[in-house]
UniProtKB/TrEMBL annotation:
Keywords: Biological rhythms, Cell membrane, Disulfide bond, G-protein coupled receptor, Membrane, Receptor, Transducer, Transmembrane, Transmembrane helix
Name by which UniProt lists this protein: G-protein coupled receptors family 1 profile domain-containing protein
Topology relative to the membrane: Multi-pass membrane protein
InterPro entries, per the entry: GPCR_Rhodpsn, GPCR_Rhodpsn_7TM, Mel_rcpt_1C, Melatonin_rcpt
Ranges where the G-protein coupled receptors family 1 profile domain occurs: 48-299
Lineage per the UniProt record: Eukaryota, Metazoa, Chordata, Craniata, Vertebrata
Localization annotation: Cell membrane
Gene source species: Eleginops maclovinus (Patagonian blennie)
């Protein structure tokens, strides 16, 4: 039975049970919205990043030092869609975490690896583009196959070293607001500040510096301030740079709100943490989650080689015969025509991202 409450004027106020039903309906609506966003993110994340990896594997024009880090970034984005995100989705459906503490710690750790791995790979990509465009004479030596593999290994080693301290601090905890086992911003103020500075702000500054230098060079070449660079800086180089610049911008936009909230909470946890609206906190987290599916979309929209490979792979999935026909056609055309020097000369070949 509903408990009716009379006000001073004798009118009936909202009953307690009706209020509870309203709160429950609101919570159910929010859970449905979050689940919808996460399902879409998982689907696009898996499909898009698998397409990126297959495209680089299939297309020789895409197999270069720079794209090793692009594949590495895709792997970092893909792993969260295969393990942590499905667990979050399960928690949303059950309205609680039901997978136990081991899965909680494991999913939080893998999510941390993905996030830090993404920003470190984006930083590595920016440094690679900076060396290719601004120091082209030394690029082949700096990014030989051996050196590139070493840089990639160093990137993931630093990622692991940056993630492991979470176990010692005890910062991987379940947060019912976002149905996730993730980094708890209020466990240690000093550690939270360190995480934001080392894992977000410093990489952001490095990437910003690299892309600023590239922008300056592009503008100088365009206005003939440095005409000697025109032969070295091809239109495809500019397009590829713009593609990776957009990847960086979207990452910064999606992750900045959560990092700024964490920094504010760490500086004054007593006053700031209780005053952050729950909707703002949840929105910032799911914006960050959503970023994992965007990179593959950007490659497809802005890069012709990726877009062509996407179409070929998707058609091959739907109509397997087309893949065999295209492979046969490629072999025949390759026998009829000799490769041009531009394709075989590393110093003048285009860098396609």
């Amino acid at each position: 039975m509903d408990l009716e409450v009379m006000d001073n004027n004798g009118s009936i106020c909202l009953s307690r049970n009706e209020s509870d039903r309203g709160t429950s309906a609101s919570s159910a609506g929010r859970s449905t919205a979050l689940a919808s966003v996460l399902i879409f993110t998982i689907a696009v994340d898996i499909l898009g990043n698998v397409l990126v990896i297959l495209s680089v594997y299939r297309n020789k024009k895409l197999r270069n030092a720079g794209n090793i880090f692009v594949v590495s970034l895709s792997v970092a984005d893909l792993v969260v869609a295969l393990y942590p995100y499905p667990l979050v989705l399960t928690a949303i459906f059950h309205d609680e975490w039901t997978m136990g503490d081991l899965h909680c710690q494991a999913s939080g750790f893998i999510m941390g690896l993905s996030v830090i791995g993404s920003i470190f790979n984006i930083t590595a990509i920016a440094i690679n583009r900076y060396c290719y465009i601004c120091h082209s004479l030394h690029y082949d030596r700096l990014y030989s196959l051996r050196n590139t593999c070493c840089y990639l290994g160093l990137t993931w080693l630093l990622t692991a070293l940056a993630t492991v301290p979470n176990f010692f601090v005890g910062s991987l905890q379940y947060d019912p607001r976002i149905y996730s086992c993730t980094f708890a911003q209020t466990v240690s103020s000093y550690y939270t500040i360190s995480v934001v500075v080392i894992h977000f702000l410093i990489p952001l500054l490095v990437v910003s510096y690299c892309y600023m230098r590239i922008w300056v060079l592009v503008i100088q070449v365009k206005h003939r301030v440095k005409p000697e660079q025109r032969a070295k800086l091809q239109p495809s180089d500019v397009r590829n740079f713009l593609t990776m610049f957009m990847v960086f911008v979207l990452f910064a936009v999606c992750w900045a709100p959560l990092n700024l909230i964490g920094l504010a909470v760490a500086i004054n946890p007593v006053k700031v943490a209780p005053n952050i609206p729950e909707w703002l906190f949840v929105t910032s987290y799911f914006m960050a989650y959503f970023n994992s599916c965007l990179n593959a979309v950007i490659y497809g929209l802005l890069n012709q080689n990726f877009r062509k490979e996407y179409k070929t792979i998707l058609l091959a999935i739907c109509i397997p015969r087309l893949l065999l026909m295209e492979s046969s056609r490629g072999v025949t055309e390759g026998m009829k025509s000799k490769p041009s020097p531009a394709v075989t000369n590393n110093n003048v070949a285009e860098l396609n991202v």
